[in-house]
Amino acid sequence: MRFFLQLLVTGVALGSIYALIALGFVLIYKSTRIINFAQGELVLIGAFTAFAFLSQAGLPPALALPLTIVVAVVLGFTVERLLLRPMLGEPVIAVIMVTLGLAGILKGSARAIWGSVNRPFPDIFPALSLTLFGVGIPGPFLWGCLIAGVCLVAFTLFFRFSGWGVMMRAAANHQAAALSVGIDVRRVFALSWAIAAAVAALGGVLLGAINVIDMNLGAIGLKVFPVVILGGLDSIPGAILGGLIIGVLENLSGGFIEPWVGGGVKAVAPFVALLLILLIRPYGLFGTREIERL
Amino acid sequence: MALPRPCGDFKRSWEADEAVFPTAFSRGALAAFLLLLGLAPLAAGDFWLYLLNLCGIALVGAQGLNILTGFTGQISLGHGAFVGVGGYTVGILATRLNVNPVVALLAAGVAAALVGLLFGLPSLRIKGFYLAMATLAAQFILEYLFMRAAPLTGGAQGLFVERPALAGLAIDSDAKFFYLIMTVAALATAGARNLLRTDVGRCFVAIRDRDIAAELIGVNLFAYKLLAFALSSFFAGLAGGLLAYYVQAINPQGFTVLLSVDYLAMIIIGGLGSVLGATFGAVFITLLPELLKLAIDAVGGWLPIENIFPALREIIFGLLIVLFLLREPEGLAKLWWDVKAYWKLWPFAY
């Protein structure tokens, strides 16, 4: 029972980081209908930028983290302007392929700059610990939960009350109608990429705080897909809940099934779940059901 | 975008008009190309022959993916794993049961087709990005099986495959493999090209262009989508089988999602839905890393870029995909078309 609780609690903590990264993906999809296969690489770049500011340049965290966010935002704007804007209205497969190409460019650049070795990430988060149901939660996981929670609340409020949030929702809902009431859809798109890149960078920093960082960090981008499919592609609460469920599922299958059938179950379980969700409820828990007419 | 017709070349029947190689010149060019290809092992060194063989294998797989994604419009991110199914089938049949290579290759195709059929089932309900996700899940599940079904697949070490022997003739050199691979590649290409002109091919294209409309005019979506998955995976299985025989060792690292992305890149850079394009794309993507390596060796003396080669390959690969999609969405096939159209009218292009 204690083992189960341990897995459950760390699963929720890990899931909150998945949720944070999925949040960026959903944000882009929600407003631009672009499926971003480079979300993991944005995480990678974010983590290594933070590493460069913190360890290589030796800046204090209070300065390094905002700088990282600024770099991520600039990167998001640039990518949107150069690569994605010309692809508006192109078929899904072409857009997917562009983001796959972008993933290659980002990963290659990171590899060229920082090399393929493991990098220890400095301890930047103040020590924090919490014991829940007799299970101790490590500090970085706790910070992950906290930051993901803050982001969730912030984005919900942002979409609900701020002008830009309403414009983003309008653009997502009906592009032509949004244009006709004077919303600058291009700026909405740019903004959503910038926010997504910033959130990804935050996710990268949190992942770095949990473990060392290396070039395989980008693989987390693929883990986002079960999360967003489960939650619903265009739903922010869905991304959060999906992230938590997939995190717990991964931990539980790793803890209970892996001893019986050997390693690797942990990695494949989310994708088995993905396939089942697609067969049963393709639009996910909270996604919009698409109705197609001829 | 019709190509100007050559002067004085009139057609009197539908068959003649629909011929793949409509003029005497194009038939002559094909014959000359096949002849040159047949003579290639005499001129090419081992290294170039090896590259040509890899191109041939990639071509078989790319034609397969082109049937599914190019003709039928179903995105697949699991093609690399289907290639792997073919490779493992040959590996198991050849090492454990010592089966005849022709039978083993066909079995590889059939095994991959069955697996493709199974993972194609979700395509009946979902499409576009959702289907890409389902096939991505297929990729990871199959990778897991390659790794974990160790008694059958050899786990992480994989399998060692003996070189095959056909009718008493041992196929043990690059040159002999060249003829085997090129025969299969030529059959696959001709098969894909002709498929496009049959009723089945037209149903595929109808599904790609608008699936609901296709269903309304009587195309059985259930049958044809699954058929597309099966056919495409059959080609993938053949490619995997050839690869297993040729490189003699297969392991899970050879059939990751990166291979699936490579195959997608081939048909997209080549030109989606074009058989000629898939050919160009397969050759281009296969040769790209090798040519890059040669180029880097050439300038390596002046620039210290040797140790960032893998990084450079990733960047250039990504850039090429992006540039093609932005600048020439119809790919290499369109470029070839433009060049041909230009020379048709040269020097009186007005």
Summarize it:
The complex is a heterodimer of chains A (294) and B (350). Chain A is an all-alpha fold.
Account of the protein in words:
- The complex is a heterodimer of chains A (294) and B (350).
- In chain A, strands 1-2 form a two-stranded antiparallel ribbon.
- Chain A is globular, with a radius of gyration of 19 Å.
- Chain A has helices at 2-32, 39-56, 61-84, 92-114, 139-161, 163-173, 175-180, 185-210, 220-231, 236-261, 265-280; strands at 130-132, 135-137.
- The mean pLDDT of chain A is 85.
- Chain A is an all-alpha fold.
- Chain A has a domain at 15-125 and 135-221.
- Chain A contains eleven helices and two strands; from the N terminus they run ααααββααααααα.
- Chain B is an all-alpha fold and 350 residues long.
- Chain B has a single domain (44-345), classed as ABC transporter involved in vitamin B12 uptake, BtuC (Orthogonal Bundle), CATH 1.10.3470.
- Chain B is built from 15 helices and four strands.
- Chain B has helices spanning 14-18, 24-43, 46-71, 79-97, 101-120, 129-148, 150-153, 174-195, 199-209, 211-216, 221-247, 257-270, 275-299, 309-327, 331-345; strands at 159-160, 165-166, 169-170, 249-250.
- Chain B has a two-stranded antiparallel sheet with strand order 1-4.
- In chain B, helix 12 packs across helix 13.
- Chain B is globular.
- Classes of the chains: A mainly alpha (294), B mainly alpha (350).
User: Largest sheet of chain B, described in full?
Assistant: 2 strands, antiparallel
The share of residues in extended strands of chain B comes to under 5%
Describe the global form of chain A: globular
CATH topology tier name of chain B: ABC transporter involved in vitamin B12 uptake, BtuC
What is the number of E strands of chain A?
A: 2
The CATH architecture term of chain B is Orthogonal Bundle
Cross-sheet strand order for the largest sheet of chain B = 1-4
Main structural class of chain B:
mainly alpha
How many alpha or pi helices of chain B? 15
Which two chains touch over the largest interface? Answer: A-B, 43 and 48 residues
What's the end-to-end separation of chain B, in Å?
16 Å
Number of domains of chain B: 1
* Major sheet characteristics of chain A: 2 strands, antiparallel
Q: What's the helical proportion of residues of chain A?
A: over 70%
Estimated share of beta-strand residues of chain A: under 5%
Report the order of strands and helices of chain A: HHHHEEHHHHHHH
| Helix proportion range of chain B | over 70%
